[in-house]
Design a protein that fits this description.
The complex is a heterodimer of chains A (304) and B (368). Chain A is mainly alpha-helical and 304 residues long. Chain A has 13 helices and four strands. The chains are: A mainly alpha (304), B alpha+beta (368). Chains A and B meet through helix 9 and helix 10 of A and strand 6 and helix 2 of B.
């Protein structure tokens, strides 16, 4: 059937209008606030918080450097900020690895149950999501405190003589984040395993592979999409985490999220907060791009 | 067809083997008391209807399932408790189960790599295997980028590459269309002869079993009903199930006149006396009613003149090279015979009175 090309374009001409609601939501919800943050990061802090409409790159400068109050010419690297940046990246990376290492056997366990039981196990995995994050974090604090559950039990058993200080350490933050974000790793991993053809595992064994070799050469490559999705889902909220480092890390073990909140709150330096938020965004995107590239390169290498 | 030498050592020795799935009320016996000896270098086929336990038996041999009772020896060594990766046995899966993330060549080399062979050897054997199954041109493709028949070849090459003592094939041709299937049948046979590896082949296609196998085990309900060379199974079925499952057959109820250990004289409807072979271990007495089977091509039709066994033609069906003529015997029993069309240009018209004669040794008594 011959169709008039003009009519065709005309037909498509108005069709895009159907996506207007989605476009509006995208512009308002995603780009709008982002624009505001970008603009704010180039303004001057207001006296009582907020911003003064005066262009300045000072906020961006202060993300990385500091001026001596008495000698403005004396510029040094802002060690405190860099430490927070580094800790955020490092703790998030560790959280992702911990979630992957513990999430894999968990997902495997669920995927190898009889189909009728799997729903129950998946349901159990999501139970922590039912309680408010803050409450759950305080529950962990309750366990880690000097006179909390763990230390009391160990003291009572006579394993230790004085409580092990666990609160306000990187360990506490890691534990909290791994606990909170674990389901975000388990669920995509489970989805990948559920799709996997278990006969491939049998084929692996049949061709003389040991258990470890089957894991490495058959299972891991097949569930890789699950690892990728899970890592992204864990890493992104980890690096911007606020509640967990605030409650379990205290003032000393701050992460980027806390630093940003500080600038918008007590610090009364909204432009600096906005610039830090942009840095967070840039780090996240860079990490994602690097990660996906590394994954693809590995793929290409194996194929070659 | 080369009958393997019975004095040859047996490759797989199965005694008193059974396999039960589940426990208590839901227990299901998939294999019951299997005794089986598969000879080195033979093309052995497990034939039977769906659900009779063929796959289960194959999985027990491969090591994916452990037998509930009984012993299983491969090359003289008891393998109970050993995993599939410790047995010199490879499987060609019905679904092929090729690794989707590896190329054709990597799939084929996988077994050798896992055995820790040097890279040079893996590469060389892979190249040989690619040549053997004529897939050299597609070595670098992924399984998703080749056709079903080609996947089938790769699965074969992958299982053959580590040079197992035994190759297990679970209905490897069932997913292919008829033409490709015929091609692969002769290809499989060629590979088996060339490599000298023992093949244990599962199918529910009787024709496939008859044309390819050195020996066939006919299974039903988790048991082996009869084991023998294709012509034995076809010409001397011991049970109604076997006779019915393999080829078209006429069943006639006849009276025994006298019987020796191997032969019985029986009286057909209409009074004709014929000798019939007896299955092993069956000793009917004179006067007993037994069932005999007669293959359609073992009966001949005579037109005109008196005959000791007369019948009436009901209808004929033309099949190109031959015609199936359906008749009823004097006592009303339906009977089918196959007549070659060469030299018999016109089939007899319905209602024609004809006589039946049988080829020598056409009658076989079966157990009910
Ligand atoms: N894991 C299992 N649990 C319970 N029952 C099983 C299991 N595997 C097989 N069975 C049962 O054992 C019987 C034999 O199954 P099997 O797969 O060996 O049949 P088959 O002869 O290969 O049939 P088909 O030609 O359809 O492939 C079937 O009734 C099946 O339901
Ligand atoms: Mg089967």
């Amino acid at each position: 059937m011959a169709s008039d090309p003009n009519q065709q374009t005309e037909r498509h001409g108005w069709k895009w209008l159907l996506s207007t609601p989605a476009l509006i939501v995208l512009v308002l919800a995603a780009s709008g606030p982002l624009m505001i943050v970008i603009v704010y990061s180039f303004l001057t802090p207001g006296n009582m918080g907020g911003v003064a409409w005066e262009f300045s790159t000072d906020a961006w400068f202060r993300v990385f450097f500091r001026r001596d109050i008495f000698d403005p010419e004396n510029v040094t690297v802002n060690q405190a900020h860099l430490a927070v940046l580094w800790r955020s990246v490092w703790l998030s990376a560790q959280t992702t690895v911990i979630c992957a290492v513990l999430g894999f056997p968990t997902a495997w366990f669920i995927a190898t149950r009889p189909p009728s039981q799997r729903t129950v196990w998946l349901f159990l995995i999501t139970i922590p999501f039912w309680t408010n994050l803050l409450i759950r974090t305080f529950a962990i604090q309750e366990m880690l405190r000097n006179n909390g559950t763990i230390n009391t039990a160990l003291l009572w058993l006579g394993v230790i003589n004085e409580p092990i200080p666990m609160m306000f350490t990187d360990f506490a933050v890691l534990l909290g984040m791994a606990y909170v974000f674990m389901p975000l790793m388990v669920l995509p991993l489970y989805a990948a395993m559920d799709k996997m053809d278990f006969r491939l595992v049998e084929a692996g064994y049949d061709l003389y592979a040991s258990r470890i070799a089957v894991l490495r050469h058959v299972i891991l490559p097949l569930v890789k999409p699950g690892f990728i999705a899970g890592s992204i889902l864990v890493f992104i909220p980890s690096i911007g985490a606020y509640v967990t480092p605030r409650v379990l890390g205290g003032g000393q073990k701050m992460m980027l999220g806390n630093l940003i909140a500080l600038q918008f709150g007590q610090g009364r330096n909204w432009p600096l907060g906005a610039a830090l938020a942009m840095v967070l965004l840039i780090i996240t995107i860079t990490a994602l791009v690097l990660y996906l590239r590394a994954v693809n390169r590995q793929e290409a290498k194996r194929d070659g | 067809m080369s009958e393997p030498d019975p004095t040859q050592p047996s490759e797989i020795e199965i005694t008193g083997l059974s396999k039960t799935f589940g426990q208590g009320a839901s227990a299901f016996t998939a294999l019951a008391d299997i005794d089986l000896s598969i000879r080195t270098g033979e093309f052995f086929t497990l034939l039977g209807p769906s659900g009779c336990g063929k796959t289960t038996l194959l999985r027990v041999i491969a090591g994916f399932e452990q037998p509930t009772t009984g012993s299983l020896k491969i090359n003289g060594k008891e393998v109970a408790g050993q995993g599939p990766n410790a047995r010199p046995v490879n499987t060609v899966f019905q679904s092929y189960a090729l690794f989707p993330h590896m190329s054709v060549a990597q799939n084929i080399g996988f077994g050798l790599k896992m055995l820790g062979r040097p890279a040079a050897e893996v590469k060389e054997t892979t190249a040989q295997m690619l040549k053997l199954v004529q897939m050299e041109a597609m070595a670098d493709r992924k399984p998703s980028e080749i056709s079903g028949g080609q996947q089938q070849r790769v699965a074969l090459a992958r299982a053959l590459a580590p040079q197992p003592r035994v190759l297990l094939l679970d209905e490897p041709l069932s997913a292919l269309d008829l033409k490709l299937r015929k091609e692969m049948q002769s290809e499989l046979k060629r590979l088996q002869t060339e490599t000298g590896i023992t093949f244990v082949f599962v199918t529910h296609d009787q024709e496939e079993a008859l044309t390819m196998s050195d020996r066939i085990a006919v299974m039903s309900g988790g048991r082996i009903l009869q084991l023998g060379a294709p012509n034995d199974i076809y010409n001397s079925p011991a049970e109604r199930f076997v006779a019915d499952f393999i080829g078209d057959t006429n069943f006639l109820t006849v009276k025994v006149v006298e019987a020796t250990d191997t032969i019985a004289q029986v009286r057909l409807p209409g009074g004709m006396l014929q000798s019939a072979r007896l299955p092993e271990g069956m000793h009917p007495a004179a006067g007993d009613d037994v069932t005999v089977v007669i293959r359609p091509e073992q009966a001949n039709l005579t037109e005109g003149g008196a005959s000791p066994l007369s019948a009436t033609v009901t209808h004929s069906v033309f099949f190109g090279t031959d015609t199936l003529v359906h008749v009823t015997l004097v006592d009303g029993t339906p009977f089918t015979l196959r007549r070659q069309n060469a030299g018999n240009p016109t089939p007899p018209a319905p209602g024609t009175q004809v006589g039946l004669t049988f080829a020598h040794g056409a009658l076989q008594v079966i157990r009910e």
